[in-house]
Amino acid sequence: MFLRFILYLLLLWAVYAAVRGLLGGSRRPRGEAAQDGVDDVMSPCPECGAYFPVSIGVSRRAGGQKLLFCSEECAERHARRGS
Asked: Per-residue pLDDT for 74 more than 70?
């Protein structure tokens, strides 16, 4: 009786693993970046200090440096200050 219970559990687990694999339930390895931008790298805005995903950053050149801002407003405010 106990052996039959174990066999049913193993069969149930095998079906679960097969369905999960077919439906794309696999996990990506640790440290691997997501292609959909969910695990994007965060960067601080030099104007307001807020952290934002670099994929949505606004790039500007100032003083020979490439700066990345969180929004157009911060980029314009930084340009008006002349920093």
From this structure: yes
